[in-house]
């Protein structure tokens, strides 16, 4: 606000110091005894340096300190040929001939020359004029005004209003033959003496008393104007003249005939009204900025410029063997369920392959929309997704961005497949439910932590997955990995891109393809913005007011930055991020960095063969999907690419062979050939570590949660850029309530301003172009309000005063408006012309004056968050999710420290803990059944029909997959087992597996490199019957399920899944025995996700006696 006020002071006052006003001379200075100056019709001259070169200069130099106006009569402009209807002077013609006063003007001129003894006139020529200082004596030469205009003038003669009132307020009479009558009009002094003398007649009203009467036949000015001049001699008639509403031509006509000087107080203003160079330069800079911004935004629509600026192409994906996996991230709060349904419907129905995309929802608390009949938003989403399971997932803690008692948050994870219009897309949904303390409080939404916290859940989980062998993960991240990998069959490390859309934004069907193609085509991009348009622009007047601000923000501004090659803006409502990228520049687009079972197919002999490699492929067609299950052998994740080739089965050859998929086992070690971009630790630290300790950081972190991410990305990866894809179009549902719109704009203005301040601070590390772009945006944001206010003043002053300086400014900005309209007309967007008129009349003062002032007024109110969509409590503000309520903080301080914290462990530790908990649950079930056992009432039960939870089972759960290596099958050390027996994973404060020899991910401690056995799951275990009662099943490895299609095979077995699954106990036929005496058992889980289709399969190998 201070900067805006200073800028207005500059425009209004400081620029006048740079004006070039006409030089003025005081009346006393010109007519002093020692003056060498002369006055002619209000102009001060000094021609002594010209000498007596001409008769004009000789005459003027002979009469210093004298008014020589009578020798240069202005009334001679009324002279015209007898049969010529018009005057040579345009101004005279406009005020006389236009109003049919030519005859009266001719009579006035004839009377003046005939009755005035100071002028001698004959044969249509003025022969002589009055002598200087003697008004009624002729004999001095007369000069034409054209001769006067050829020579320079020193300036204008300046009068004081008091001087005019006391000395120039009457017509000549016998007692004062040299008297004069002046009036003040505007800033001009008018000598009306000659006009009133010739337009009136002297009438004797009594002895010794005379008066004047008007001669209408000689009155070429209107009667009321003539009366005004006659009755106000020596006065300022400006107000009276304006109240009479005369045509502007009359004012110019009065100046043309009677000008005799200027008023002292208005002399400087007169100069600035004609020319103000500083003001023109200031307004011209902003005009050029707006013009450049608009032209660049519209020029980017040209096809050849789009091909040059936006390198996306339709063939980028066709060159790949498989399109990259893409995460479609949708944060939700209290949006109406119908709008959210439209959002994920549009995402599910995009033309991107269903098997290469994953919907990821994060419900930011247990909020309830006002339009959903009291049902919580997350429940509405589950119903829309078709999730029908009645099992309640376990609560998983994680460290949030909350403060104090809100630091630890709890969440539930749901997973499944969403079917829409023939598409079947996997989804994950995280619901933040909050702690028990939050659920008991009724004044705040439990679990709410904000959008930044929601993004960190997804980005932090993907960053942890980049190195599962060393990274410790939270219980929530373990649950996400388990659901994503084991249930949905997607390796989260394969997710290369993440599209972020708001819950009220619907995308076009080609959006994902276009944005992925853009990121694949340009390796230097780490994020790309899309083009957002309003979905309901004509719903009411409030939505119409937002059309052009959205256009300027989401298209024009981004296109302008894209042309400069320095986009620093991130619109978190519609953007795609690059999570990781290939390190080697020469890596082709079709290379795949994470192992996939579909990549490696080779032929093998039947079970009777003596080959050491034992593979099996089972396929089943069910009309909709083909189920493929695979086993894998241990091999290095960095095997030579020449060994990874496809062997297709040829009919007629090797009839006894089966086609199998030979993949590499999942490796938990970090990928050395990929580089983390948006999920690098530097980026996540920059996004999560800053704390809102000042008003500036409060506005940055609490209001600009997603905008701040752009600064973090550019600071962490200065060699990468942010792009803009104008053809990736999404439609957002804009607020229909004025106060919701106001809240959204205030939040946007405050966050944008403070994020720009933060970005300028670090722009020196990114590049000079970014500094220039951010600085111009900041100046635009700060000075737009005073510029708009001043422009309104310019238009008002122009229509009132018609000053030249304002006419030029008003004309320039009017041309800018016309250019806008021209662009819409040539694109045949005539509806936009109407919207633009509404924008100019109503949106500009609201969005550029009212909202900025209100945003500045509420800058210290960043803790309050106004919901754009009404909750069950209606529209209103609330505390930001990470901020602790004062009452809540007091309760937290009164409570004793309970030492609650979120334990982070490696994946293997979680698997051991899950196995122990599963064994405990089975033991409790056995004890419960034993307590109810009353003896046998039927025949013996065959061993094969024992339930999977029977305590007499000859099988001991397999060791965790992440713990196994070559011939290293021990579950854990005895010390670890004792720890797990007595302690819970949630309450532990340190990693119980501290021995380096027990680290299953360190290849240096692996005794054998190529001999461990295959399996199929990494965080679940199998419990079934076996002929070995006291031995472990052989070690297992696994392969991520990242096939081109999600395919499954039903096969009944005795299985137990660890997470959100159903236990089955059904008899199964004995498994086949291979040539080495081992059984191959295929286990399949029918996970209770509300569908009849199974969700994942497992293999385990048994030894057979």
Please identify, by name, the CATH architecture of the largest domain: Alpha-Beta Complex
Give the CATH class of the largest domain: Alpha Beta
Taking all Cα atoms into account, the compactness measure Rg is: 45 Å
* Major sheet attributes: 10 strands, mixed
| Strand neighbour order, sheet with most strands | 15-16-17-14-13-18-21-20-28-19
For the record, give the distance between the C-alpha atoms at the N and C termini, rounded to a whole number: 86 Å
Mean pLDDT: 75
Structural class: alpha+beta
Going by CATH, the homologous superfamily of the largest domain would be: Spore Coat Polysaccharide Biosynthesis Protein SpsA, Chain A
* Spatial shape: elongated
Q: Count of helical segments?
A: 33
Number of DSSP strands? 32
Percent of residues in helices comes to 25-40%
Q: Which percent band covers the strand fraction?
A: 15-25%
Low-confidence stretches are 586-664, 938-1105
The number of domains:
3
CATH topology of the largest domain: Spore Coat Polysaccharide Biosynthesis Protein SpsA, Chain A
Fold and architecture overview:
- The protein is of the alpha+beta class.
- The chain has three domains: 21-274, no CATH class; 303-579 and 677-885, Spore Coat Polysaccharide Biosynthesis Protein SpsA, Chain A (Alpha-Beta Complex); 624-648 and 905-929 and 944-1105, no CATH class.
- It has a ten-stranded mixed beta sheet, sandwiched between helices. Strands 1, 2, 3, 7, 8, 9 and 12 form a seven-stranded mixed beta sheet that branches. Strands 4-5-6 form a three-stranded antiparallel beta sheet, with no helix packed on it.
- Helix 29 (804-826) crosses helix 30 (830-857).
- The longest helix is centred in the last third of the chain and has 34 residues, at 768-801.
């Amino acid at each position: 606000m201070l900067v805006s006020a200073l800028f207005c002071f500059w425009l209004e006052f400081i620029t006048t110091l740079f004006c070039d006003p006409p030089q003025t001379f005081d009346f006393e200075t010109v007519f002093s005894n020692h003056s060498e100056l002369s006055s002619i019709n209000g102009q001060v001259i000094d021609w002594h340096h010209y000498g007596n070169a001409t008769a004009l200069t000789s005459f003027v130099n002979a009469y210093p300190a004298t008014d020589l106006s009578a020798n240069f009569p202005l009334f001679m402009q009324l002279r015209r040929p007898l049969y010529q209807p018009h005057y040579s002077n345009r101004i005279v013609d406009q005020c006389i001939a236009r109003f049919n006063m030519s005859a009266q003007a001719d009579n006035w001129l004839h009377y003046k020359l005939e009755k005035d003894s100071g002028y001698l006139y004959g044969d249509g020529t003025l022969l002589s004029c009055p002598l200087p200082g003697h008004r009624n004596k002729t004999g001095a030469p007369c000069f034409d005004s054209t001769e006067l205009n050829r020579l320079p003038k020193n300036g204008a003669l300046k009068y004081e209003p008091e001087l005019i009132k006391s000395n120039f307020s009457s017509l000549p009479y016998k007692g004062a033959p040299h008297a004069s009558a002046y009036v003040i009009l505007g800033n001009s002094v008018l000598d009306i003496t000659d006009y009133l003398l010739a337009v009136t007649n002297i009438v004797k009203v009594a002895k010794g008393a005379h008066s004047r009467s008007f001669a209408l036949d000689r009155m070429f000015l209107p009667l009321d104007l003539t009366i005004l001049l006659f009755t106000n001699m020596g006065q300022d008639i400006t107000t009276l003249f304006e109240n009479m509403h005369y045509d502007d031509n009359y004012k110019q006509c009065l100046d043309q005939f009677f000008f005799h000087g200027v008023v002292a107080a208005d002399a400087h203003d007169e100069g600035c009204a004609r020319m103000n160079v500083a003001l023109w330069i200031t307004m011209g800079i902003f005009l050029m900025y707006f013009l450049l911004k608009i032209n660049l935004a519209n020029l980017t629509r040209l096809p050849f410029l789009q091909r040059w600026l936006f390198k996306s192409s339709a063939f980028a994906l066709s060159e790949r063997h498989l399109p990259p996996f893409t995460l479609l991230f949708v944060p939700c709060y209290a949006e109406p369920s119908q709008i959210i349904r439209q959002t994920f419907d549009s995402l599910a129905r995009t033309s991107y392959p269903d098997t290469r995309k994953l919907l990821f929802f994060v419900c930011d608390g247990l909020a309830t929309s006002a339009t959903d009949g009291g049902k919580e938003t997350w429940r509405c989403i589950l119903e829309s997704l078709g999730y029908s399971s009645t099992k309640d997932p376990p609560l998983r803690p994680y460290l949030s961005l909350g403060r104090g008692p809100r630091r630890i948050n709890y969440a539930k994870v749901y997973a499944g497949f969403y079917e829409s219009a023939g598409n079947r897309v996997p989804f994950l949904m995280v619901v933040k439910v909050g702690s028990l303390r939050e659920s008991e409080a009724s004044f705040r939404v439990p679990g709410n932590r904000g959008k930044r916290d929601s993004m960190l859940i997804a980005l932090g989980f993907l960053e942890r997955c980049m190195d599962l062998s060393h990274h410790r993960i939270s219980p929530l991240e373990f649950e996400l990995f388990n659901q994503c990998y084991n249930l949905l069959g997607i390796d989260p490390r394969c997710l290369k891109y993440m599209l972020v859309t708001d819950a009220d934004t619907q995308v076009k069907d080609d959006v994902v393809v276009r944005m992925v193609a853009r990121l694949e085509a340009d390796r230097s991009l780490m994020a790309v913005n899309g083009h957002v348009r309003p979905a309901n622009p004509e719903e009411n007047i409030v939505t119409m007011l937002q059309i052009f601000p959205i256009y300027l923000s989401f298209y024009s501004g981004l296109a302008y930055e894209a042309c400069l090659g320095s986009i620093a803006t991130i619109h978190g409502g519609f953007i795609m991020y690059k999570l990781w990228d290939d390190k080697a520049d020469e890596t082709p687009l079709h290379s795949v960095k994470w192992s996939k079972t579909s990549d490696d197919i080779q032929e093998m002999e039947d079970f009777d063969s003596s080959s050491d490699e034992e593979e099996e492929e089972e396929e089943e067609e069910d009309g909709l999907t083909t189920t493929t299950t695979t086993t894998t052998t241990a091999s290095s994740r960095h095997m030579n690419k020449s060994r990874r080739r496809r062997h297709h089965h040829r009919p007629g050859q090797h009839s006894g062979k089966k086609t199998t998929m030979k993949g590499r086992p999942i490796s938990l070690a970090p990928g050395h050939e990929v580089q983390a971009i948006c999920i690098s630790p530097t980026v996540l630290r920059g996004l999560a570590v800053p704390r809102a300790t000042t008003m500036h950081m409060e506005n940055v972190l609490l209001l600009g949660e997603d905008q701040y991410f752009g600064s973090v990305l550019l600071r962490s990866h200065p060699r990468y850029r942010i792009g803009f894809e104008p053809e990736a179009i999404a439609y957002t549902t804009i607020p229909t309530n004025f106060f919701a719109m106001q809240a959204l704009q205030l939040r946007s203005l405050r966050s944008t301003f403070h994020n720009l301040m933060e970005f300028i601070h670090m722009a020196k590390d990114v590049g000079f172009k970014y500094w220039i772009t951010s600085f111009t945006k900041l100046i635009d944001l700060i000075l737009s309000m005073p510029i708009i206010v001043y422009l309104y003043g310019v238009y008002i002053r122009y229509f009132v005063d018609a000053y030249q300086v304002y006419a030029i400014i008003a004309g320039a900005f009017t041309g800018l408006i016309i250019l806008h309209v021209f662009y819409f007309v040539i694109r045949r967007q005539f509806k936009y012309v109407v919207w633009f008129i509404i924008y100019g009349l109503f949106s500009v003062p609201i969005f550029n004056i009212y909202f900025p002032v209100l945003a500045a007024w509420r800058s210290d109110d960043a803790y309050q968050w106004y919901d754009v969509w009404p909750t069950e409590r209606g529209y209103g503000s609330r505390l930001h999710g990470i901020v602790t309520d004062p009452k809540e903080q007091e309760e937290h301080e009164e409570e004793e420290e309970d030492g609650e914290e979120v334990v982070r462990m490696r994946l293997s530790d979680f698997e051991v803990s899950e196995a122990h908990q599963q064994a405990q649950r089975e033991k409790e079930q056995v004890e419960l059944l034993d307590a109810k056992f009353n003896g046998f009432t039927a025949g013996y039960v065959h061993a094969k029909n024992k339930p999977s939870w029977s305590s007499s089972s000859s099988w001991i759960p397999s060791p965790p997959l992440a713990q196994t290596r070559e011939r290293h099958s021990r579950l854990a050390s005895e010390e670890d087992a004792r720890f797990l027996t007595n302690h819970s994973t949630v309450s532990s404060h340190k990693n119980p597996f501290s021995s380096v020899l027990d680290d299953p991910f360190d290849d240096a401690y692996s005794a054998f490199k190529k001999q461990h056995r295959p399996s199929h799951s990494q965080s679940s275990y199998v419990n079934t019957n076996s002929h070995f009662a006291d031995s472990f099943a052989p070690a297992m490895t696994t392969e991520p399920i990242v096939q081109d299609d999600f395919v499954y095979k039903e096969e009944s077995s005795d299985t137990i899944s660890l997470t959100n699954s159903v236990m089955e106990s059904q008899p199964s036929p004995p498994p086949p025995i291979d040539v080495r005496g081992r059984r191959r058992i295929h286990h399949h889980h029918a996970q209770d996700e509300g569908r009849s289709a199974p969700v994942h399969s497992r293999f385990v190998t048994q030894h057979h006696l």
